[in-house]
Design brief:
Strand content: 15-25%
Order of helices and strands: EHEHEHEHHEEHEEEHEEHEEHEHHH
Distance between the termini: 44 Å
Radius of gyration: 19 Å
Structural class: alpha/beta
Oligomer: single chain
C-alpha cells in the first residue's frame, strides 16, 4: 500500500512511520509534517513539509504519490488545545475535513485516531462500553467526538473506507510528550532516567488507560489491514493495555531505579480533564472485529522503556 501520514513527527507518527517503512518499503510511505526535524522520519525516507490546513497542497502531494491510504495524525492534543481552543478547532477539524476530502478525491482509505478524551463526566467510568454517552467538556474531546461522527458520515454518504481507534494514553521512548493529559506517563520515564526525580501534576489514585506505543502502532496496522466487511465500529474502537495511576508507575520504575523519587504538584485543570475520562475501558469489540491484543503490560513496558532510555540518554543506572 502507498501510505501518506500527516503529523509524522508527533507521538504516534514517529514510530508509525518507521514501522510502515519496514513493513511496506521505504518508497511506499510518504511522511509529512509542518516541521522538518533532523531525525529518521525526515532523513531516512520520503518526507515532505505539509500544513494540513493547505487543502490544495495536501491534495497535490497525495495525487503525485498515488496514495491509497491516508493516516491523518496532525492534531493539537488535550492540554495544549485547552490553552488555545479556537486554534485547536481550526486545526483539528479543518485538517480532518481536508484529509477526508482528499481521501474522497482519491478514493483512498482514511484512518484518524480518536481518544478516550471523547468521553465525559456522564460516561460510565469503569469498563466503559464501546457505544455509550459521549459528552466531553474539553475542546479536544469535542473535536474527537465530531471526528468520529464526521468519519462515519463520509463512510455512509461517500463510501470512503474510514477507520479509527480511540487511543488511551500512549507511552513512547522515541517521541517526547506532546501536550496531552496522559503525558505524565511518558515524562515520568524520561525524568526518572535523567534526574531520578519527577513532579507529577495529577493526583495519586487517578486511574487512566495507557498503552505502550509499539502496541498502538501494531493496532493501527492491524486495523488498516483488516477486512472491511468485519468492521462494525469502524471509526471509534476502544483499545487499551492497562489501567494505571501514578504511584503504580513510580513503584514499577523504582524496581529498576531505586533512588527514583516522585512528588506531587497538582495542576487543577489537568486534573479536571483526567477526572472526566474513564478509569478503564471495554476493548472487546476491537478484539473481535480486527484481532487487537496488546503485548505489553506495565511491568514489561517499564523494563523496555528504561532500557531504551538509558541508551538514549547515555546514562548508566544500576
Amino acid at each position: 500500500m502507498k501510505v501518506l501520514i500527516t503529523g509524522a513527527h508527533g507521538q504516534i507518527g514517529t514510530e508509525l512511520v518507521l514501522a510502515l517503512r519496514k513493513r511496506y518499503g521505504v518508497d511506499q510511505v510518504i511522511a509529512t509534517d509542518i516541521r522538518h526535524l533532523d531525525n529518521e522520519v525526515s532523513t531516512k525516507g520520503i518526507f515532505i513539509k505539509l500544513d494540513v490546513m493547505d487543502r490544495k497542497e495536501f491534495e497535490k502531494i497525495a495525487k503525485e504519490h498515488n496514495v491509497e491510504v491516508i493516516i491523518h495524525l496532525a492534531a493539537l492534543l488535550s492540554a495544549t488545545a485547552e490553552s488555545n481552543p479556537q486554534f485547536a478547532w481550526d486545526l483539528n477539524m479543518g485538517g480532518l475535513l481536508n484529509g477526508l476530502e482528499v481521501a474522497r478525491e482519491l478514493n483512498a482509505m482514511f484512518f484518524t485516531p480518536s481518544s478516550i478524551g471523547a468521553f465525559g463526566q456522564q460516561t460510565p467510568k469503569e469498563n466503559t462500553p464501546q457505544v455509550t454517552i459521549q459528552r466531553p467538556d474539553t475542546m479536544y474531546g469535542i473535536n474527537k467526538v465530531a471526528s468520529e461522527l464526521l468519519c462515519d458520515y463520509y463512510y455512509k454518504k461517500y463510501d470512503i473506507d474510514t477507520r479509527g481507534i480511540r487511543f488511551p494514553g500512549l507511552i513512547s521512548h522515541l517521541a517526547p510528550p506532546g501536550g496531552g493529559t496522559t503525558d505524565y506517563a511518558v515524562d515520568i520515564f524520561h525524568q526518572a532516567v535523567m534526574k531520578q526525580q519527577f513532579i507529577c501534576n495529577l493526583e495519586p489514585g487517578t486511574y487512566l488507560d495507557m498503552m505502550y506505543m509499539s502496541d498502538a502502532v501494531s493496532s493501527i496496522i492491524q486495523l488498516i489491514e483488516a477486512d472491511s466487511d468485519k468492521l462494525v465500529n469502524r471509526n471509534a474502537y476502544n483499545i487499551s493495555a492497562m489501567s494505571v495511576e501514578p504511584d503504580m508507575i513510580a513503584n514499577e520504575i523504582k524496581k529498576h531505579i531505586p533512588e527514583f523519587d516522585m512528588i506531587y504538584n497538582i495542576d487543577e485543570r489537568l486534573q479536571e480533564i483526567a477526572n472526566s475520562w474513564p478509569n478503564s475501558i471495554d476493548t472487546s469489540c476491537a478484539k473481535e472485529e480486527f484481532g487487537f491484543e496488546p503485548t505489553y503490560d506495565l511491568e514489561s513496558m517499564t523494563r523496555d522503556m528504561i532500557s531504551k532510555l538509558k541508551v538514549k540518554y547515555k546514562e548508566k543506572i544500576i
